[in-house]
Structure formats: C-alpha cells, structure tokens
Design brief:
Blueprint: E1 7-11, H1 15-27, E2 31-35, H2 41-48, E3 52-56, H3 64-72, E4 82-86, H4 91-98, E5 102-105, H5 110-128
Parallel strand pairs: 1-2, 1-3, 3-4, 4-5
Helix pairs in contact: 3-4
Amino acid sequence: MSEENIDVAIFDDDEDILSICKYVLQEHGWKISTFTNCSDVTSKVRECAPGVIFMDNWIPPKGGIVATQELKQEQDLKNIPVVYFSANSEISKLASNAGAEYFLAKPFDLDDLVTTIQKALAGSKASEN
C-alpha cells in the first residue's frame, strides 16, 4: 500500500488543530478523516479504514485513553498504529496507559507531525512482515 492511498484519522475537539493538520497532511498526499468526538469510535475508524490514528487526550465524551483502549480491543482494528497527542506533560505515560504506539506533544512542529506518521506507517509495515 503506497503512502498516497493511506487515510489518517484525527480525533481532536479543537477545530483549528483539525483544519491545520488536514491542510498540511493533504499536501503530502494523505487522505484525512477528522472527528471532533470519540462517540462510536470503532464505527468511525472502520468506516474510514485509516493507516494511522491520531487521538487527543481530552476528546469528548470519554477521552482518548478509553477510546484508544476500545480500538485496541477490536481484532480488526488493534493493529492500526495510534499516535496519542496532547499538551499534557505526562504524554508518554498517557500514551502507554491508552495502548498507543506513538505520541506527539502539543504544540508540535508540522514537520514532526509528518515524520510521526511516516514512522507509524513504517512500523506497521514492519509488523506485517
């Protein structure tokens, strides 16, 4: 699967972050699906079938930890890499508690956003082999 055909799902309740991420990532050829809440998170992820998921810590109604854990409990979704992103100073601990494979601290450099996706995609390809 080439990177151009990859969908990236972004869960964040901050519309500014969603629009900036969507703009920048579409410039790199990725298809972006954005969500302002994590209600019915498994259905949303199944619908867009992303190669990478970005999950905010404070996403309503249940938060990123619970939403990520729900995804990781599903056989068909558990191998999709999750990048936990938050301004919380304990982000690495939160990401670990959630079961996310990667994390990105807010505020982040847009180059770091792209690099993190590339790293997650490379990691998921390596685990498929």
